[in-house]
Amino acid sequence: MMKETLSTSYLFGSNAPFIEELYEKYLENPGAVEPTWRDYFDKLANLPGAGAYLGRDVAHAPIIASFAERAREGCLHIAHIAHGGEKQTKVLQLINAYRFLGNRWAQLDPLKRHERPEVAELDPSYYGFTEADLSASFRTGSFDMGVEEATLREILETLRSRYCGHIGAEFMYIADVAQKRWIQARFEPPRAVPRYTPEERRRFLERITAAETLERYLHTRYVGQKRFSLEGGEAMILAMDQLIRTGGATGVKEMVIGMAHRGRLNVLVNTLGKQPGMLFAEFEGKKKIELAAGDVKYHMGYSSDVATSGGPVHLTLAFNPSHLEIVNPVVEGSVYARQVRRGVDGMREVLPVLIHGDAAVAGQGVNQEMLNFSQTRGYGTGGTVHIVVNNQIGFTTSDPRDMRSSLYCTDIFKMVEAPIFHVNGDDPEAVAFVTQLALEFRQEFRKDVVVDIVCFRKLGHNEADEPMVTQPLMYKKVNAHPGTRKLYAERLAAQGVIANSDAEQMIKDYRAALDEGRHLVDPVLTDFKSKLAIDWTPHIGAVYTEKCDTTVPRKELVKLAGRLTAIPANFTLHPRVQKIIDDRRLMSEGKLPVDWGMGENLAYATLLAAGYDVRISGEDVGRGTFFHRHAAFHDQNREKWHEGTFWPLAAIADKQGRLQCYDSVLSEEAVLGFEYGYATAAPSELVIWEAQFGDFANGAQVVIDQFLAAGEAKWGRSCGLVMLLPHGYEGQGPEHSSARVERYMQLSAGFNWEVCYPSNAAQIFHLLRRQMLRAQRKPLVVFTPKSLLRHKDATCSLADLATGTFQTVIGDVAEMDAKKVKRVVACAGKIYFELAAARREHKVDNVALLRIEQLYPFDDRRFVEELRKFPKATEVVWCQEEPENQGAWYAKAHRLNAALQKGQTLSVVSRPACASPASGYAARHVQEQKDVVERALGLQQ
């Protein structure tokens, strides 16, 4: 038994990829493998049950497992391999080990701080080879050296030159064999070694020179000012140049770039061609004040068009806050919108590029969320090129032992099987090679790919920081480093590519251009305008208005309702859904009132029929968390999970707008960031993100604070994104009651957005239509109901849709004597219906109820109009379900107080102030709700 195990040991563990590779070659051409293996595979094909595994379209893991199992059982006789027996097998294992682990011995660190780690699998002695074996010849297998046989010494030297030089490649974990072969074909053959022309190499030097010279120019001209220098990582500018040039040649028409502050000013000037004079004005505080708030110079975005061999490429650098990596999903959303607009060629023509820092890319969870949806239907952009500026330190005080738990900062990308190319930032040609390789891989396979530029940071975290305090050993080496530019210039001079004086002349020429404030990227196209550019013209400078004709003729509503309830033949609905559709038919006939779900769907239908595009995303938007929307129907008799889904809104008219309705991954931060980015690039589209519960948006608070609430004030970026946040106290505990109204109210200023709390089906219908029909583009925050979705008093008639409008304030609808009213209770949302029910039950006739449907901007005029209808009222009460320190009270008190008439007082009725949004005890919730209602109506003190 032991003898059998030893004779088949190479079928297990690290040898599995070797077997898989041989089997792949056998499938392509049986004659391409050695006779011994060909005979073995032929025998396998004849074994009972083996035929089910054979074929190129199945996973190979079961095949390899079958090999091993049958070998254990003695069902197969495995002969020694020809050309050296088991030593030949060991050579192939060694080759595979370098593909897997060669990066561990790659010469990546410009500072040369670390000793080469012990990796036994890369040492020939691990496989039993001795000095005598180095001169022996072996077959090279799939390792393309240009010859089929070579000595072990030659094989080793070639492996180390390919996988252990200034590039360390990680890709063997990729399941797709074609992708692995593609990468191997660009690393292993002799022709794969990059050979650049003298002109190309001079350009590389010029780009490195531009990056370094700009930083040193700013350092001496603006002493002590923050700029987050790129010195030590100048190769990033070369990588961007190579990316743009290669991208243009492969069909890229647009690039959207996301990055944090490190090196951002350099990218603005040396990549996008921002005029140096504009940058200097920002340093000197001379920039014209145009925005309500503005932002620091290393957060600002920019766009330009540059010429490439493949035609103009439009570059956009996204605006971003200091929250590291948060801009990344915003970029992906913007790219997705642009790709959708371009149609079938969108993924090839629009490229997302994300530039990361080493500590942030591993440390910020938004990257995991983003990668998790990178290959899904409604969010995949066909692959992103990630460039990591790896200065090996993170923040200045970071101890390497505390930076991360993984070996590389880029290990997170392995979750989507993205190939990762680590490269020494001191080798510009290696950087250019892997950048081009990365772009071509992305274009070929539509997958994420990573270029990890291992470099260093010349200065501290910012220019006022002193890194020697906490990193003395590292910064002794940094201070002794001559700089990437100088090293490369000396290399080119030694090879006769440039004269000794050329490098210094490049610096002088660049500094002269800086002094003159000239464009430094050649050529920047100043008069080019793409026909597919986003047209914000109709929305720029739009005056804020609440009024808009959102009515739709009843005949059109009935027609669209018919389309909404038309089910394809042989399509079986779930009985509960069938009942909803039957009821919706009755609603269209006027036999049932229109409920929230129908009103919302009709809003989408009318917009789609008018040619507007609609995009709805969130964790359960097709059905709706509370079983109300049913924008997607699922055939109960479907045989496969990806079949049998029907979207009525996608078949609403013969010629209509595009519908996108996607149940997102379980993510808030990255998905909301994505939708914000999408909305900024799609002003003519209704873009909606819905939280499963309103408080789930808490996980996306950075996006809300930094982009939605403040994006226009800081960067002048308009956005019409709609957030639907289910809100209401129904005894579901502290995590599922409050959408945190107070947070949105606190962020409201300068007409930055609208915050609404609609209370019936007509209100949501007109509110959603208003969002698109007005010229202005402001974010819309909507607190939507849960229990009210099926409340009979929250319904409306078709006439309310055909003739009504969105009401910012709804007056009291009860029949009562206004002169008897002593108290006016103002409220918002669900609590109104409980107050109205209690008023009827207790026959209260001296309390009026006003609904504030738009919390911000507050419609003072309409509120005063309604208040004046009750001239005898001396008390005005704000009633809310939320605790007193939450909800809208603190933000609304001063506006309510300003609207009071002579002799009136203002007070609040709410739950007591509390650190938690709501009680988790059902009995306490019921009692608290009863107390709030009764106190508001004056039934108890």
List the helices and strands and how they pair.
Layout: H1 2-7, H2 16-28, H3 35-45, H4 61-72, H5 86-101, E1 137-139, E2 149-151, H6 152-163, E3 167-170, H7 177-187, H8 198-221, H9 235-249, E4 254-259, H10 264-270, H11 276-283, E5 302-306, E6 313-317, H12 327-342, H13 346-349, E7 350-357, H14 358-363, H15 366-372, E8 385-390, E9 420-424, H16 428-445, E10 449-454, H17 472-480, H18 484-494, H19 502-516, H20 554-564, H21 575-588, H22 596-609, E11 613-618, E12 633-634, E13 645-646, E14 659-663, H23 669-680, E15 685-690, H24 701-708, H25 711-715, E16 722-726, H26 741-746, E17 754-756, H27 761-773, E18 780-784, H28 798-803, E19 809-810, E20 823-827, H29 831-841, E21 847-852, E22 854-856, H30 860-867, E23 875-883, H31 889-898, E24 905-911, H32 922-936
Parallel strand pairs: 4-6, 4-7, 7-8, 8-10, 9-10, 11-14, 11-15, 15-16, 16-18, 17-18, 20-21, 20-23, 23-24
Antiparallel strand pairs: 1-2, 3-9, 5-6, 12-13, 17-22, 19-21
Question: Which structural traits does this protein have?
Answer:
941 residues; alpha/beta; Rossmann fold; eight-stranded mixed sheet; seven-stranded mixed sheet; disordered N terminus
Summary?
With 941 residues, the chain is an alpha/beta fold. 38% of the residues lie in helices and 12% in strands. The chain is globular, with a radius of gyration of 33 Å.
Structure description:
Keywords: Oxidoreductase, Thiamine pyrophosphate. One of its GO terms (cellular component) is cytosol. Residues 594-791 form the Transketolase-like pyrimidine-binding domain. Pfam families: 2-oxogl_dehyd_N (PF16078), E1_dh (PF00676), OxoGdeHyase_C (PF16870), Transket_pyr (PF02779). This is 2-oxoglutarate dehydrogenase E1 component. The protein is an alpha/beta fold and 941 residues long. It folds into four domains: 2-192, no CATH class; 198-516, 3-Layer(aba) Sandwich (Rossmann fold); 554-803, Rossmann fold (3-Layer(aba) Sandwich), CATH 3.40.50; 817-851 and 858-936, Rossmann fold (3-Layer(aba) Sandwich), CATH 3.40.50. Helices cover 38% and strands 12% of the residues. It is built from 32 helices and 24 strands. Strands 3-9-10-8-7-4-6-5 form an eight-stranded mixed beta sheet. Helix 27 links the parallel strand 17 (754-756) and strand 18 (780-784). Helix 8 packs antiparallel against helix 18. The longest helix is centred in the N-terminal third of the chain and has 24 residues, at 198-221. The radius of gyration is 33 Å and the shape is globular. The chain starts with a helix and ends in a 5-residue tail after the last helix. Mean pLDDT is 89; it is low at 1-10, 50-58 and 77-84.
